[in-house]
Amino acid sequence: MAPEALTRQQTDEALAALPGWSTDGDSIARTYSFAKHLPAAAMVIHVAAIQEELNHHSDMALGYNKLSVTVNTHSVGGQVTGKDIELARRIEEIAPGHGAS
After folding, report:
1. Rg of the chain (C-alpha set)
2. Is residue 97 exposed (0-12), middle (13-18) or buried (19+ Cβ within 10 Å)?
3. Which residues of 42-57 are buried (b: 16+ CB within 10 A; e: fewer)?
4. What are phi and psi of 30, to 5 degrees?
5. For a Cys-Cys bond, which of 17, 21, 43, 59 suits 30, CB 3.0-4.6 Å?
6. Positive or negative torsion for Cα 70, 78, 49, 94
């Protein structure tokens, strides 16, 4: 069964439990900061493993000490679904272990 797009209100309510995440057009996004480059790069690999597990992939941009993650669901026209919220929640769970803020 294909996921259903969330309304803006549903998305906002879900993001209330995910500090730092916000809507970015038809996506949700967050930028993490790190003390140095290597922890940011390590988190990219960890996020990629979660994405493979969930079979749901985001866009990521790695900078020296920053990692930006943008998520939406292509199969529903690039809108936000529960799959996106779940991926964001899983990323939030691992972020502290990488020293992300």
Report:
1. 13
2. exposed
3. ebeeebeebbeeeebe
4. -155, 145
5. 21
6. positive
Residue 38, both tokens: 């290597």
3-state secondary structure the chain: CCCCECCHHHHHHHHCCCCCCEEECCEEEEEEECCCHHHHHHHHHHHHHHHHHHCCCCEEEECCCEEEEEECEHHHCCECEHHHHHHHHHHHHHHHHHCCC
Question: 19-76 pLDDT, tens per residue?
Answer: 999 998 899 999 999 999 999 999 999 999 999 999 999 999 999 999 999 999 998 9
Question: CA 86 to CA 88: how far, in whole Å?
Answer: 5
Task: Give pTM, 2 decimals.
Answer: 0.95
